[in-house]
Amino acid sequence: MSVFNLGSINIDHIFRLSHLPTAGETLISNGYQCGLGGKGANQSLALALAGAEVKHIGRLAASELPYLHLLQEAGVDLAYAATDAAATGSAVVMVDEQSAENQIVINPGANHQIPSSLIDEALASACAQDWALAQNETNNLSYFLSQAKAKGLRVCYSAAPFVAATTVEMLPLTDLLVVNQLEAEALASSLNCALVEIPVPHLVITLGAEGARYIGKEGDWTLPSPRVEAVDTTGAGDTFLGFMLAALTTGQPIKSAMQLALSAAALQVTRLGTAEAIPALSDVRAFMNSHNLTAN
Description:
CATH topology: UDP-N-acetylmuramoyl-L-alanine:D-glutamate ligase
CATH class: Alpha Beta
CATH superfamily: Ribokinase
Order of helices and strands: EEEHEHEEEHEHEHEHEEEHHH
Strand order of the largest sheet: 5-4-1-8-9-10-11-12-13
Strand content: 25-35%
Structural class: alpha/beta
Radius of gyration: 18 Å
Number of strands: 13
Number of domains: 1
Oligomer: single chain
CATH architecture: 3-Layer(aba) Sandwich
């Protein structure tokens, strides 16, 4: 069982600051890192580290190919990551050293130049047992999900960065929707309905340090997150999604998949960085054992 991920690939420029800047304020950073980013790449990496078979569909400039070494080492299939773009996507990530919260500005670059032919080529090998995954950082989102759905794939949609109109449009194609609390409330407002009435079979709402809520065919319940001392929350949501979906591909129940994912995200935020901070499955299992957590 594979996950076909139409996903962004960014080069992240990460600045660690004493506090996040206000309008007109100039700050000197306390640290700087440059590395692989993008919600799509992060989620593919988390999926692979959690044990899933991942095929990444994306685009970047050939000169940036070395940045994909983390994906390659984790076993992500990059046969459909085209390297013919003029400019790779990029992001400026500012991290508050006190709160571990962040602000992010994205330049889409090649992420908005993915041809439908590349999607067709990738999905030619897909079958009905597979999953399709997408976020809001690439073009051809509707085309990808429509083609995947037509082939019988199950669709997981990570609706971020959140755009209400786009998310509403994708709902009929979505089996599993993953959003944070503010995004869920904005979506419900757009639909003029309650959270429990959002029309998807499975809705997972991430709650940051408080955990995650499930609403759908399996009921309505919330799981708490393990308590940790966070140093950088960038990429926590992508880590959560990757580990949850990877567990689902092995047939685990949604509740145990979410418990694993919450543990992975909790461990990830104790590390500096984004992609490089995503833990391996063995590390997450050890973390769960040390905190007396079980996937139930």
